What we know:
Layout lengths: L1 H16 L34 H15 L2 H15 L29 H18 L5 H15 L20 H7 L7 H9 L5 H8 L6 E3 L17 H10 L8 E3 L11 H7 L6 H8 L4 H9 L1 H15 L26 H4 L11
Antiparallel strand pairs: 1-2
Helix pairs in contact: 2-4, 2-5, 3-4, 3-5, 4-5, 8-13, 10-12, 12-13
This protein binds protoporphyrin IX containing FE (HEM) and 2-acetamido-2-deoxy-beta-D-glucopyranose (8 copies).
Amino acid sequence: MALGTSSLTSLLFLVTSSLFLRSPFHVTNAQSYPPLVEGLSWDFYESSCPNLESIIRNQLTKVFSGSIGVAAGLLRLHFHDCFVQGCDGSVLLVGSASAPSEQDAPPNLTLQQAAFQTINDLRGIIEGQCGRVVSCADITTLAARDAVYLSGGPDYDVPLGRKDGLSFATINETLANLPPPTFNTSALLNSFATKNLNATDLVALSGCHTIGIGHCPSFTNRLYPNQDPTLDKTFANKLYGVCPTSNSTNFTVLDIRSPNKFDNKYHVDLLNRQGLFTSDQDLYSDNRTRGLVTSFAVNQDLFFAKFIYAITKMGQLSVLTGDEGEIRANCSVTNSDKSFLSGLVENEEIGLSQF
Length: 355
Ligand code: HEM
Ligand SMILES: *[C@@H]1O[C@H](CO)[C@@H](O)[C@H](O)[C@H]1NC(C)=O
Ligand SMILES: *[C@@H]1O[C@H](CO)[C@@H](O)[C@H](O)[C@H]1NC(C)=O
Ligand SMILES: *[C@@H]1O[C@H](CO)[C@@H](O)[C@H](O)[C@H]1NC(C)=O
Ligand SMILES: *[C@@H]1O[C@H](CO)[C@@H](O)[C@H](O)[C@H]1NC(C)=O
Ligand SMILES: *[C@@H]1O[C@H](CO)[C@@H](O)[C@H](O)[C@H]1NC(C)=O
Ligand SMILES: *[C@@H]1O[C@H](CO)[C@@H](O)[C@H](O)[C@H]1NC(C)=O
Ligand SMILES: *[C@@H]1O[C@H](CO)[C@@H](O)[C@H](O)[C@H]1NC(C)=O
Ligand SMILES: *[C@@H]1O[C@H](CO)[C@@H](O)[C@H](O)[C@H]1NC(C)=O
């Protein structure tokens, strides 16, 4: 009976989503949701950079074949970009001692430098083929999509046309917008509600933790001074081995069943009390989200469908379009930032006079 109900839900979902018209300009052939924001469209770069999506997919296929961990780094970058000041590429900006950026807030510690490098490399390759027409914010969004797909997850079309922001958020704004791993479900629901994301979105998006790693300080609140009773005992003992002290610099995988594969095993972990963070495991402890966790754990297609919906929505949080932003010449700095001067010497396209 339960199975029948969830199959029916998936069927209705597929029927509904297939009603949307598809643009011919895509590498994907998947379930997708049309743009929610005026100024964004699937075919934004159709004439200015027709091979954009295949350039990114080909390059990331190469990058991931060498180091699959970068996929998780790219996916997380997209989350941090969108939750702090919108999906405007601001997370990519490097700060300075006098003006610390989003990258300098504590959650940064663990943003992968390789992911930042991958975005900058992609930008260079794309500029080489199309000129400077694609924003770093769009590159980050497409890279996150490909991180999901190339890790075994669903494919989906991404509304495009974001512009890059002209400023970054302060450390305080960053901390206020990014939920820490010690949050319980109540706090997570509140945090996500401020982004107009609900319980279904929260449980689906938390499924990003089906790939990647976490460092000890992110989860030792569950080991010291007392062991979290919602933590499986055998799993807890393994974690004490990884983190002999709460501030150990060691790390471990977020999904013990299939750490590099984008699937519904994260939700299966939660059913078995093997979620790594408080923010993960509490989704199963709390009766407002437990049913959602279970439904995704038993039905991967349902998880994928809800995930695509939620990440497409997240990917359009407070985006800049049209004249609201710029196309950066270097994803790490705004075009007016003088600190970029050092990187300009060999770039013929930009005259120094503009600085
Ligand atoms: C629900 C609230 C969330 C919290 C509290 C949270 C927290 C965290 C923390 C603490 C880490 C590990 C940092 C470290 O110790 O190395 C992490 C890793 C990660 N997060 Fe989240 N996260 C959340 C939502 C998301 C979402 C929505 C996404 C994707 C859109 C995401 C994607 C990732 C990925 C892929 C990693 C692994 C990164 C890597 O391996 O380098 N997270 N998250
Ligand atoms: C992250 O933030 C901390 C604290 O603000 C800072 O000391 C550190 O240098 C930053 N790390 C990176 C990799 O940017
Ligand atoms: C950041 O927040 C802390 C604590 O909430 C506060 O003491 C500090 O003044 C804030 N800094 C800025 C620049 O707003
Ligand atoms: C969740 O955390 C908040 C803030 O830490 C706390 O006030 C609240 O009681 C917690 N809720 C539950 C259901 O544990
Ligand atoms: C979240 O919103 C979607 C529509 O945007 C809806 O289908 C879903 O039922 C909502 N989830 C919850 C738990 O209210
Ligand atoms: C970690 O914590 C231990 C004990 O609290 C302390 O002795 C040690 O200096 C800390 N190490 C770091 C790197 O902070
Ligand atoms: C890292 O983990 C290993 C076991 O996996 C442990 O022997 C070692 O002490 C840990 N190192 C630190 C700095 O916590
Ligand atoms: C959910 O749990 C809360 C306490 O944690 C309880 O008061 C409430 O009755 C439960 N609701 C359902 C529908 O089980
Ligand atoms: C981009 O800017 C960063 C930060 O100023 C700089 O370190 C880097 O060399 C620049 N990259 C290029 C390709 O100029």
